[in-house]
Amino acid sequence: MKLNEIIEFKSSPLIIERLNEFGFTRIFAEGAVIFKENVYIKAIPIVTSGSVRVMRMDDEGREILLFYITSGESCIMSFLDGMHHDTSKVKAIAEEETQILFIPIDKVSLLIKEFPEWMEYIFRLYHERFEELLDTVNAIAFKKLDERLFNFIKKKCELMKNNTLYVTHEQLANELGTARVVVSRLLKQMEDEGLVKLGRNKISLV
């Protein structure tokens, strides 16, 4: 998909030309790690097709989902880490086959000076990601795990545009930061309540 079809800069269409000129494209298979924690960010990713999940790991190696990045979006965390020449605080994984345009850090600074719209784009993404992080914190602090799990399944179905998820209980547990046995018990309870239908490595919304 062409960049100008997913991101629109009305006042300066030239920025699309600059992004294509400065950037390089890579395609990642489903499950591929795009960047890891504790590595230096050398280029900012812009998703041009597919989707990416951004995870955070604690000191004990447990991971939790922070947010998703979809077509036309970038990872604000990598932007901040890259601009400050710091290491990544998150891990990004391709949720499906995903194409990404990478903009080298030194070119990002040039874009900020040349195009105010670029900074507006970054601030808009920052606002959206901040709200999603607040939702994650609120869910962890105030919602029961069964509600979090069901909302997570619904959100993931919306992201994939499919009422059936092909995912293991272990994967769900990792993304929610809990144990597989807990997820399996809650899913069975949801199936008994008629909310979902379970299959081998798949979950369907009813």
Structural class: alpha+beta
Q: What is the helix tally?
A: 7
Q: What name does the CATH topology of the largest domain carry?
A: Jelly Rolls
Number of strands: 10
Secondary structure layout:
Layout: H1 14-22, E1 24-28, E2 33-35, E3 43-49, E4 51-57, E5 63-70, H2 76-83, E6 91-94, E7 98-104, H3 105-114, H4 116-142, H5 145-160, E8 164-165, H6 169-176, H7 180-192, E9 196-199, E10 202-205
Antiparallel strand pairs: 1-7, 2-6, 3-7, 4-5, 4-6, 8-10, 9-10
Based on the model shown, name its key terms.
three-stranded antiparallel sheet, 206 residues, 2 domains, alpha+beta, elongated, single chain, Jelly Rolls, Arc Repressor Mutant, subunit A
Overview of the structural elements:
This protein is α+β, with helices and mostly antiparallel strands and 206 residues long. It folds into 2 domains: 3-141, Jelly Rolls (Sandwich); 144-205, Orthogonal Bundle (Arc Repressor Mutant, subunit A), CATH 1.10.10. It is built from 7 helices and 10 strands. A hairpin with a 5-residue loop joins strand 4 and strand 5. The longest helix is centred in the middle third of the chain and has 27 residues, at 116-142. The two termini are 33 Å apart.
Summarize the structure.
The chain is of the alpha+beta class.
